[in-house]
Amino acid sequence: MADQAAIDALRNHAVPPRGLWIDGASSEAASGETLDVISPIDGSRLTTIASAGHADVDRAVAAARRSFDKGVWSGTAPAERKKVMYAIADLIEQHALELAVLGVRDNGTEISMALRAEPGSAAGTFRYYAETVDKVYGEIAPTAQNVLGLVHREPVGVVAAIVPWNFPLMIGAWKIAPALAAGNSVVLKPAESASLTLLRIAELCSEAGLPDGVLNVVTGHGSVTGEALGLHMDVDVLAFTGSGGVGRKLLEYSARSNLKRVYLELGGKSPNIVFADAADLDQAARVSAFGIFRNSGQVCVAGSRLLVQRAIHNEVVDKVSAIASSMKVGDPLDLSTQAGAVVSAEQLEKDLHFVAEAAREGAELKTGGNRILEETGGFYMQPTVFDHVTPQMPLAREEVFGPVLGVMAFDDEEEAVQLANATVYGLAAAVWTANLSTAHRMVRAIKAGVVHVNTYGGADNTVPLGGVRQSGNGHDKSLHALDKYTDLKTAWIQL
């Protein structure tokens, strides 16, 4: 674990302007346009990044296609690809502190979490998929004796990945690593408000021996750069994590172009359900609080709806509210900070709008609800708890993506399921109970891709992450992620 002195030594390092990463080299956008990078820590201008247009995306996709068709990666022996992916993981670990601090300056995540969730997670993900390179087999079909049926797994070709600003390294690795493991070439589009660490990762991949053109990074506005990738006729698969509105546009772009496969992780409104028989209410309250307030609520699987059985409702609300009000919010580069900055002024304004709307509609504010530390120039908000939220309120239906928790009471298991599923989303959920039968019934009944029991978060690469309903389709993590980046080809051989 890094110490505070090492972090402080990096907090004010100058960050040079960053270009696009295409075909193994950095370059300006064809238009010369750039975007300012504003640090949420203090609202200052950190650096600039290139703003890619359609011509730049064409160049990146062409580099990816060229590298794929030449076989400089796709045609390399699996054992050699594995070595390169291990080398990438090693370099990420060697530069972990640099990457973590750079990322925090870019998006405001508290450093204690960033160290684990960003370079720590990314290195582990590259290692996990490095191990799959020479261990995922094709199939021999159970055919008649005079026929041999072979099922080959082949890389799809050019993968476009569009990733969000909350955990760019972690989520970027979830898409880059399995795509590379399968032998594809990749064009990555980071969020304009969190591009710096992924540009650095591209450099480290090159240093590790990844051939030119296999990983390209194009930065810029989603409405321009993302659209260009979505409409591109030479992108075979597009993987996206972000909002439902953008996900719908990407599906439209696929239909308007080459019918590329589109995989979407679109967030959620995840229910966190506490039954009266939960073994340890203090633990449930503490984990539930951090399940929504870590990274200032900017987590796709955040437990933003707390459902509490009526017999313990007041007790649990008081415990969670006390934890929320005692959390240290502030300088994300301070190891003692428990919740860092909101990523941008625009996101903070959106969060505060939800607070005002919930208050107008009759929800009871238990704690928080305000912007704080405005004198720093940064974007900070108190952890906020609303009680007596109803299913019809926007706070119960819409993803805030901020440090705002809505609490509802329920009487029995049937009502808990009804409230849990009263949303268009289906990404994550949690159940706190000492009754094993209740736990299993709830896992089956809740419409979500991940259901935690007596915990919240923490699932590793051995299990898939993906949603149902309007939380999207396809899966990150686990061997199932490889399904997105491979095609099946049948060979039917008459003997």
Query: In terms of per-residue confidence, which ranges show pLDDT below 50 for 5 or more consecutive residues?
Result: none
CATH level 1 class label of the largest domain: Alpha Beta
Number of strands: 21
Biggest sheet record: 7 strands, mixed
- Look at the structure and name the CATH superfamily of the largest domain: Aldehyde Dehydrogenase, Chain A, domain 1
- Per the principal axes of the C-alpha atoms, what is the gross shape? globular
* Strand line-up in the sheet with most strands: 14-17-18-13-12-19-20
**SS-based structural class?**
alpha/beta
> How many individual helices?
15
The tally of domains stands at 2
Into which percentage range does the β-strand content fall? 15-25%
Report how far apart the termini are. 60 Å
**What Rg do the Cα atoms give?**
23 Å
The CATH architecture assignment of the largest domain turns out to be 3-Layer(aba) Sandwich
By CATH, the topology of the largest domain is: Aldehyde Dehydrogenase, Chain A, domain 1
Look at the structure and give the mean pLDDT.
Answer: 97
The share of residues in helices is 25-40%
Report on the architecture of this protein.
With 495 residues, the chain is of the alpha/beta class. The chain folds into two domains: 4-266 and 472-492, Aldehyde Dehydrogenase, Chain A, domain 1 (3-Layer(aba) Sandwich); 271-460, Aldehyde Dehydrogenase, Chain A, domain 2, CATH 3.40.309.10. Helices cover 38% and strands 20% of the residues. Strands 14-17-18-13-12-19-20 form a seven-stranded mixed sheet, sandwiched between helices. α2 crosses α8, α3 packs across α7 (196-208) and α10 (281-293) packs across α11 (313-326). The longest helix is centred in the N-terminal third of the chain and has 22 residues, at 111-132.
